[in-house]
Each structure stands twice: as structure tokens, then as C-alpha cells.
């Protein structure tokens, strides 16, 4: 297959880890007989410095005309004092909006060789294999009215939690489609005892579930879900929820298995290119030192192979290579354990390439 990939390394460790992902993709292409063409573009702080905007028009064009988008990370202390329209994160939010990627997928799987780094008991953590599906383009973060007021000296602020039925339906449907090829269980998380949006969400979830007779649907209140993720995370297969609940629960879940440097994410739209990025940020404290863990970026590229290109075998090969590297006792500093060999970013990439 011939695919065009937009590559947005971004800031901080973004460039270093992107290097790793591309080396791995090159091996995949060679071995499986595909052709991947990469088109690089600017985003975030780098784009502010060079183009005066965190999301240049050209970047949007490159992304929209590609089959998928790989993104490293954006942001850093250099731009922290910038006015809000010149913040690196604005570039990422804008890109998500432009691409219409309403579904954010975060797989949380246990890497058995890293399990002892988790704060949970080994026997609990070993069984963890869940996927959080978070609505990404609606809800409290975008609803209007939104803003600050001052009436006769009384200050106030407002955010609005708003969803249309259509927005709920498409994200819930995505979750069911994923569950159908996994362990066939969807946990729909809401706060239906207090929120109107959650009551509609529950109705929509029940309706969508009729189209997936083999998938079991359960409803869970978000406070309970936060507790259950720690108490018994193995009970979950696919969790689907609205934007803010998903934001919080996915960060919580990301810590179940140990390391931030291992976690990948996919953001999908209905028909346009998907956006693939590691869960971690630009790690300014270690940027430029060849120390960053490239595995989350490499695993994000594997998600791209799976979800945008339907290259399941290829994706599995990459995931398997990562498992083998860990099994072989190789680590970057962030996941170092006693008796393991510490590698630089480049060396870690090289190891994955060798196993692949
Ligand atoms: P953001 O606001 O962009 O989410 P953040 O402030 O949450 O960023 P990160 O950039 O994710 O923070 O970094 C948090 C910590 O984890 C830092 O100490 C960083 O060095 C470390 N870290 C993050 N990603 C990696 C990685 N790939 N390899 C090694 N260490 C990492
Ligand atoms: Mg963060």
C-alpha cells in the first residue's frame, strides 16, 4: 500500500521521538512491501517562532491531504508567557478541530516486564487491557456561553456543558465498534443522577447498543468509575465518556501500568485522517539530551497502522518488538529498573528496529 503521512514533530523531545517512529515505520514499509511518504510540517512553539502562529495554514493543508497525521508534542517554558493566541497548545486544539477528530482513544495495556513499576499489586495490574474512548470536540470545553462577568461588582464565570444527540451517538457508536472486536463490553460513564446531558447520554447509549447485540452495555457514574479504575481495572474493556470525564479518567488510567513514556493515543474522525500522538508532553526538562523514551511515539505509529491503514499484522509486529525489547531488559531512564540496561533514545529505537 502507498500512504502519505503528515509528520509534525513539534517541540521539546518531539523531534527526537519522531525520529524513532519514522525509523520503525521505514522498517515496516520495507518488510511488508508498503510505501510511506512523509511530509513534515510545523506546529506549536516551533511554528510560532518560524511563522508567527501555532498552526500555520500550510500545516492544516498538509494534514488534510494526508492519510494520517503523526504528532510528537507541543509546548515548553519558552512560550509560557505568550498571550493566549500565541500558545503552542492552541496549535494542537486547532488541529483537532480542523480535522474533526471527535474520538480520542487511549489503550491502557500492561507490559508485563514493567508491571512492578506500577503502584498497584502485580496480580491486579497484569490483567489490565482497557481502552478509554473520550469525546474530544464538544462538552464543557467548548460549549457556549463561556466566559467571565462582572455585574455590580459581583464577579462570576460560566462554562456550558452542551451536546447534541448526534455528537453523543457518533462517539458511543465508535466505542461499540471497538468493543465488537475486543472483549465485547462497553462501560458508558456519566453523571446521570445530576446532569441532563448525562441522562440523554444514557438514552443514546441504550439506543446505539441495539445495533450491537453481542456487546454488553453497562452504565457507571463517573465517581464510581474513578474508584473502580483503581480497585479493579481488569473489569473494563471499552470505557466511553464525554470530554471532561474522559480527560480525567484517561490520565488516571494512564498511571495504572507505570510509565507515561509508554502510552500512545489515537484521535479519529468519521472519514478524514486520524491523529496519532503519545500521551506525554514535550518533556522540556530532558529535551535535546537523547534521553527521552521513544516507545509511546513508536506505539502511536503502530496505532496509526492499525486504525488508519488497517495494517493489523504490521501493527502487531511493532507492538511485539516493543514487548521483546522490554523483555530483553532494555530501558530508557524513565522506566529504568534494577538490573536493566539503560539506553539513549537512539539506542532504544535501534533495539526496536533490530527486534522488528
Ligand atoms: P503537558 O502539559 O504537555 O501534558 P506535562 O507538564 O504534563 O506536559 P510532560 O512533558 O508529559 O509533562 O512530562 C512530565 C514528566 O515526565 C517530565 O519529567 C518528563 O521528563 C517526563 N517524560 C514525559 N515524557 C517522557 C518520555 N517520552 N521519556 C522520558 N520521560 C518523559
Ligand atoms: Mg500533562
Nearest-angstrom radius of gyration? 20 Å
Termini, distance in Å? 19 Å
Structural class: alpha/beta
| pLDDT < 50 stretches | none
Number of strands: 14
Q: Please give the share of residues in helix.
A: 25-40%
Nearest-integer average pLDDT = 95
Biggest beta sheet summary: 10 strands, mixed
The H/E string reads: EHEHHEHEHEEEHEHEHEHEEHHEEH
What proportion strand?
A: 15-25%
Our count of helices gives 12
Strand order of the largest sheet: 2-1-3-12-11-4-5-10-8-9
Name the hetero compounds present. Answer: adenosine-5'-triphosphate, magnesium ion
Shape, principal axes of CA atoms: globular
Function: Catalyzes the oxidation of 3-carboxy-2-hydroxy-4-methylpentanoate (3-isopropylmalate) to 3-carboxy-4-methyl-2-oxopentanoate. The product decarboxylates to 4-methyl-2 oxopentanoate.
Subunit structure: Homodimer.
Binding site for Mg(2+): 223, 247, 251
Catalytic activity: (2R,3S)-3-isopropylmalate + NAD(+) = 4-methyl-2-oxopentanoate + CO2 + NADH
Topology:
Layout lengths: L1 E9 L3 H19 L2 E6 L4 H7 L5 H8 L3 E6 L14 H12 L3 E7 L12 H4 L3 E7 L7 E9 L2 E7 L4 H16 L4 E6 L5 H14 L6 E6 H10 L6 E4 L1 H12 L9 E5 L5 E5 L16 H13 L4 H16 L2 E2 L9 E2 L2 H11 L1
Helix pairs in contact: 1-10, 1-12, 6-7, 8-9, 10-11, 11-12
The protein binds adenosine-5'-triphosphate and magnesium ion.
Subunit structure: Homodimer.
Catalytic activity: (2R,3S)-3-isopropylmalate + NAD(+) = 4-methyl-2-oxopentanoate + CO2 + NADH
GO molecular function: 3-isopropylmalate dehydrogenase activity; magnesium ion binding; NAD binding
Amino acid at each position: 500500500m502507498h500512504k502519505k503521512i503528515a509528520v509534525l514533530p513539534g517541540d521539546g523531545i518531539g523531534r527526537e521521538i519522531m525520529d524513532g517512529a519514522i525509523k520503525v515505520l521505514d522498517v515496516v514499509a520495507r518488510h511488508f512491501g508498503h510505501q510511506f511518504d512523509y511530509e513534515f510540517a510545523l506546529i506549536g512553539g516551533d511554528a510560532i517562532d518560524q511563522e508567527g502562529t501555532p498552526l500555520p495554514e500550510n500545516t492544516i493543508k498538509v494534514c488534510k491531504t494526508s492519510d494520517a497525521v503523526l504528532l510528537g508534542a507541543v509546548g515548553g517554558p519558552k512560550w509560557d508567557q505568550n498571550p493566549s493566541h500565541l500558545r503552542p497548545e492552541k496549535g494542537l486544539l486547532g488541529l483537532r478541530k480542523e480535522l474533526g477528530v471527535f474520538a480520542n482513544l487511549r489503550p491502557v495495556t500492561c507490559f508485563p516486564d514493567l508491571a512492578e513499576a506500577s503502584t498497584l499489586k502485580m496480580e491486579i495490574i497484569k490483567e489490565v487491557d482497557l481502552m478509554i474512548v473520550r469525546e474530544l470536540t464538544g462538552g464543557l470545553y467548548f460549549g457556549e456561553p463561556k466566559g467571565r462577568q462582572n455585574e455590580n461588582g459581583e464577579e462570576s464565570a460560566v462554562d456550558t456543558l452542551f451536546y447534541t444527540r448526534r455528537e453523543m451517538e457518533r462517539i458511543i457508536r465508535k466505542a461499540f465498534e471497538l468493543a465488537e472486536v475486543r472483549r465485547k463490553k462497553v462501560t458508558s460513564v456519566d453523571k446521570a443522577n445530576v446532569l441532563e446531558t448525562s441522562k440523554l447520554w444514557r438514552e443514546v447509549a441504550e439506543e446505539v447498543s441495539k445495533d450491537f447485540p453481542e456487546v454488553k452495555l453497562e452504565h457507571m457514574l463517573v465517581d464510581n468509575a474513578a474508584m473502580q479504575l483503581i480497585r479493579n481495572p481488569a473489569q473494563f474493556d471499552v470505557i466511553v465518556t464525554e470530554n471532561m470525564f474522559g480527560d480525567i479518567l484517561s490520565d488516571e488510567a494512564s498511571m495504572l501500568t507505570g510509565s507515561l513514556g509508554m502510552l500512545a493515543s489515537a484521535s479519529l474522525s468519521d472519514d478524514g485522517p486520524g491523529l496519532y500522538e503519545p500521551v506525554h508532553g514535550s518533556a522540556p526538562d530532558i529535551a535535546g539530551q537523547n534521553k527521552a523514551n521513544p516507545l509511546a511515539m513508536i506505539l502511536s505509529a503502530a496505532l496509526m497502522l492499525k486504525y488508519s491503514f488497517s495494517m493489523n499484522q504490521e501493527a502487531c509486529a511493532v507492538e511485539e518488538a516493543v514487548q521483546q525489547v522490554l523483555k530483553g531488559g532494555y530501558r530508557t531512564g524513565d522506566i529504568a529498573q534494577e538490573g536493566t540496561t539503560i539506553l539513549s533514545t537512539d539506542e532504544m529505537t535501534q533495539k526496536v528496529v533490530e527486534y522488528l
